[in-house]
Give the backbone structure.
Amino acid sequence: MSDLLTKLAKAIAKEKIKVIDLTQTLRPSTPVIQLPPPFAPSAPFSIEEISRYDDKGPAWYWNNLAMGEHTGTHFDAPIHWVTGKDYRDGATDTVPVQRFIAPAVVIDCSKEAKKDEKFLLTPKHILAWEKKHGTIPKGSWVLMRTDWSKREDPAKFLNMKEDGPHVPGPNADAVRLLVERDVNGWGVEAVGTDAGQAFSFEPAFPAHALMHGSNKFGLASLCNLDKLPPTGAVIVTAPLKIEHGSGSPLRVIALVHDED
């Protein structure tokens, strides 16, 4: 093991580097994105006990799981969207593994989202962030903090109204700017990477259409973004290696240097 990796392992063991879990717990009540008819819905998370130290298996406990690929905290691969369908390295089993570990920047929109449940991140907000923290580095994850994950009631988390979901997210021009910055991907605390009203944008669902069309990734249903600094964190985002998978639930881990 190289000296650099040894130092990293020791720093983690001594908690000089904090390991922060950005992942929601999977359970049957985990909210799943809702699509109107006639679109096919994603199955909710379900868990079925196989055995638990009993006649079915006296020394072991395990379960069968069923869910859609995009359930709970999950990874969106480029082939998830029609704009990214032709990338040979765009599925969960073909994405270069180096891209699963990358720096992250956090844009704090929690105050705005608290005042306006349909808050939209615009280039103006991104440029203001960059004026304070520097240009978003190439190959970074950009994470939008809204504190939306603190909505523990699934109905309030999905926040469906008569005109569709009221959920914060980016507008199309903000996504275009991030694509120009050549980011690794875009992550949010809501159930999906787009704003709730993004079906009416041009293009529709730009965090999907533009990000995946540029061979970039998405992360949804993140949590604990309030524990990350604006810059300096590194996140690990490895999805399950599903053959030709469009995405996957995953455990998102952040590494943050403790300067105290």
